[in-house]
């Protein structure tokens, strides 16, 4: 990363907040570097996942057959919503017994991780600084990004998990022989010598389809949340321009409050929408695994 003197304070602020708390102490330079571990993304994603599992476990353990309370009713509404979507996409009832809870967990997990974007961008670095964990800007512990879904490593990992579920159900429903046969016989169907000629093209098309669906699933969530995080950082620059009680500072401070409030309200819709889209695409991909070309 360039030194602070080589770039404007605004650029340095943005670049600084885009560095993860990792084992190398600087921003990852390569798109794929398996030697880098982003501790902040792992911590917050695991914590949000644990909270989701605890909430669902709590709801299941306290469920009653009588008049439900508000907490139980809210969870039941979510369960019914996901189950209705699963019924229209995944035809196999046995598969839905696993896929529906998976989709519900994925939805709540993504929504909870996305909600962390509403936490002020400077809060965690400030906490680390005042607690003495990162008093200097050069200290790698001072770097901290709280939003896991703005980390491509997290979203791609989730998409790969969905791919494994899709492959599992494809093999389970069609049997290993039928699944492998489908890779070579679709989407371009033929008979006789034509089937043999088209087999390599069919295999290539299916592999591309799996790769494209996995990448698009991860990039869609990552791109939307990363862009939202950048907007919050740009809005934070308005408040950071405060230089005293003067017209310019008061105007920028008021703009910071108004813009930040408006974007936060709009971002709530993005948080929920991206969670719903990720859940629906998970159901769609699993549903497609039950179909033949």
Describe the structure.
This protein has 8 helices and no strands. The protein has helices spanning 9-17, 39-61, 70-89, 93-115, 123-130, 152-185, 193-240, 247-289. Helix content is 71%, strand content 0%. By secondary structure, the chain is an all-alpha fold. 26% of the residues are buried.
Let me know the number of strands: 0
Tell me roughly what share of residues is in helical segments: over 70%
End-to-end separation: 49 Å
Average predicted local confidence, pLDDT: 84
**Major sheet description:** none
Shape: globular
Query: Which stretches of 5+ consecutive residues score pLDDT under 50?
Result: none
**Global structural class:** mainly alpha
Please provide the ordered H/E string of secondary-structure elements. Answer: HHHHHHHH
Percent of residues in β-strands: under 5%
Query: What is the gyration radius calculated from CA atoms?
Result: 23 Å
Number of helices: 8
Write the SSE topology.
Elements: H1 9-17, H2 39-61, H3 70-89, H4 93-115, H5 123-130, H6 152-185, H7 193-240, H8 247-289
What descriptors fit this protein?
single chain, 293 residues, mainly alpha, 8 helices, 71% helix
What is this entry, summarized?
This protein is mainly alpha-helical. It is built from eight helices and no strands.
